[in-house]
Structure formats: C-alpha cells, structure tokens
Design brief:
With 361 residues, the protein is an all-alpha fold. It has 13 helices and no strands.
C-alpha cells in the first residue's frame, strides 16, 4: 500500500510546479469558503470587472485612451445597474406579487378539481385519501410561499443594509479594478514563484474559455429575455415581464432551466386562454425561442466551445450550485472547465511503456 501511494505521489507531485498549482488551488478555495461572505463585494466586483475588460480592450484597440475607455464602460455599467434597480426590479416584484395573490390560488383550485376526479377514473391507481393528502400539502406550501412573498418582516432589514453596502462598494471596486488592472496584475504576479509555466498554461487556456462563456452567457440572457418579453407582450400574455425574466435566467442552467421554466409559462397561458388557439400560439412561440436559442444563438455566441460531457455539466451544476447557490450554478461550467484545464496541464511523470516483444519471424 505504501509503495502504491509513493508511486502515485512521485507521478503527480514530482515536479515542483505541481506543488505550486496545488497550493494555489487549495488557497483560493479556502479563501472563498472561509471568507466568501466577507469578501463577497470584492469577488462580485472582480467578476464584473473581468466581464467588462473585453469591452475596455476593444475601445483601446480603436485608439481611445485607457482612462477614457474605462470611464465609458463604467458609465455604461452604472446606467444598466440604475435601470435594473429603478425600472426592472420594481416591475418584476409587482408582477410576482400579483401572480402569487391572484393566479396561484386559481391554478391550485383547477388542479384540485382535476385531482379529485382521478380516483373515479383510476381507482386502482390512486385513492381519494392520497388526493386529500396531496391537496392539503400543496395548500400549506402555497400559503407559506404566499406569506413569504407578500410580507416583508423586520428580519429583512439587515439584508437590505447588506444590499446597500453592495450597491456602494461593488461599483467603486469595479472602477478601480478596471482602472488599475495592470498594477494589480503585476503585484499579483510578484507574489507567485518565478517558475510558473504550468500556471501560465492553465491561465491561457482558461482566460479565453471563461471570458467567452461568461460574456456570452450574459448576452444570451439579455437576448433571450428581451425576445421573450416582446413575444409575450405581443401575445397579450399576463405577467409578460416576470415570465420573460424567468425565461432569460433559465439559460443559466443548461438542459434543466428551459424545461423548468416551461411550467410557469404553460400555467399562465392555460389559466388565461384555456385550451384554445391562443394558448397553442403561446407555446409554439415559446418553443421557437428555445429552438433559436439552442441552435443559432448559442453556437454564434460560444465560438470557443466548452468541451465538456453533458454528464459533467449536470454534475458540476449540482455540486457548485449546492455550495454557492445561484452564483455556483452560473459559474458551474467555467469552474468545471477550470478543473479540466488543471488536469490537462498538471505536470506528472509518465510511466515508461513496457517494450513490446519483437514479432516472431
């Protein structure tokens, strides 16, 4: 057993750069796990600055001074942030309250009538007692959910204070990350060992892929959400803005998000139009948006495809989403790609291949 472990260590940690890489990974993970809540504004600002750096570089390539490029991109970011907080979020919240207060009880009532008819049609499959248990459980869950949405308790005040702190610190940090990027990168490189070929290979592989993925995903959310809002508005569908935001955010979770968000779209459409041509039109238009997203928009945005198996993507979403919630879901694929790049670049001693016996003459 000792020989096996020794051989494994010699293969994977014989090169000192492997140790550097391991220390960097463990140190970064420890900082996020131990101080993630404290450093949340810094981490959020770092991600946002990384997203906007591509636009800053594009402006600089067109001949604009660095400070002017940073200022223009930062003002664009502030404008989007103010529009989201002042216009988008209040409207989404208003439609959410209306949906919970007016729509969900109606959906539950129709579902209850449908469930109570099942024991008469399929008595060997489901009983009235099982239906009563299911209905009572759904009513309790709906009551708790509605109370949580419709009421704001005093316990939410600390969360509001945290949001205010974020709104002040994050834009300030984003500006300095963009403005002093070269100085900060030089300082960070000075902390690393002089021999960092492996770290350089990992960064080069990840820089293009993560930048392409995250920026492309942000554009995909905006395009899909806007297209859904315009379509739902033209179809005169209730809660068009809320459903469009849900459809836009659903692209964060590949394979699963589109399936889950179909349920509220279908529920609102059925409650408003019933089994009619209008309901069918809503579902057809929604299906067309999903088709165009998966077959045209995604290949166009993600020119540098992330070469991960669907099983690996789903496992990454479950794992990182369970650790970091929505942020973990959003960055699940970049983090999985990081692990793949680390494994590909990891220095290790290859075992000598056994010599083949000469073929018999």
């Amino acid at each position: 057993m000792f020989k096996v472990f020794k051989g494994w260590m010699e293969r994977w940690f014989a090169d000192e750069e492997a140790v550097y890489l391991l220390v960097a990974l463990v140190g970064g993970l420890a900082v996020i796990l131990l101080f993630g809540n404290i450093l949340a504004p810094v981490l959020a600002a770092l991600v946002l600055a990384y997203l906007m750096q591509g636009l800053v570089s594009a402006l600089e390539r067109r001949g604009l001074p660095s400070l002017l490029s940073v200022t223009l991109v930062f003002l664009l970011f502030l404008g989007g942030l103010v529009a989201t907080l002042v216009v988008l979020l209040p409207m989404v919240w208003q439609q959410t309250v209306m949906l919970v207060r007016d729509q969900l009880p109606h959906v539950l009532k129709n579902s209850e009538q449908w469930l109570r008819a099942l024991p008469e049609q399929y008595p060997e499959v489901i009983s009235m007692e099982q239906v009563n248990i299911l209905v009572n459980s759904a009513q309790r869950e709906l009551a708790q959910f509605g109370q949580a949405v419709l009421s704001l308790s005093l316990s939410s005040i600390p969360n509001l204070l945290e949001i205010l702190v974020f709104l002040v610190l994050v834009p300030l940090l984003v500006f300095f990350f963009l403005k002093d990027r070269q100085a900060l990168v030089s300082w960070l490189l000075g902390l690393l060992p002089s021999r960092r070929n492996v770290l350089g290979r990992v960064w080069q592989e990840m820089d293009g892929q993560i930048a392409n993925y995250v920026r492309g995903k942000a554009i995909e959310i905006l395009v899909v959400g806007t297209a859904s809002f315009v379509a739902f508005l033209l179809l005169d569908l209730n809660y068009a803005l809320l459903l469009a935001v849900m459809v836009g955010l659903s692209v964060i979770v590949p394979y699963v998000g589109a399936t889950l968000v179909t349920l509220p779209v279908a529920a609102v459409g059925y409650t408003q139009f019933g089994w009619s041509g209008d309901f069918a039109l809503v579902m057809v238009i929604y299906g067309v948006i999903q088709f165009l997203d998966g077959n045209i928009l995604v290949p166009l945005l993600f020119s540098e495809a992330v070469n991960l198996h669907p099983v690996a993507i789903i496992v990454a979403i479950l794992f990182f989403g369970g650790i970091w919630g929505l942020w973990g879901v959003f960055f699940a694929i970049p983090l999985a790609t990081l692990l793949k790049a680390v494994l590909n670049a990891w220095p290790r001693e290859e075992k000598e291949k056994p010599q083949e016996l000469p073929a018999a003459e």
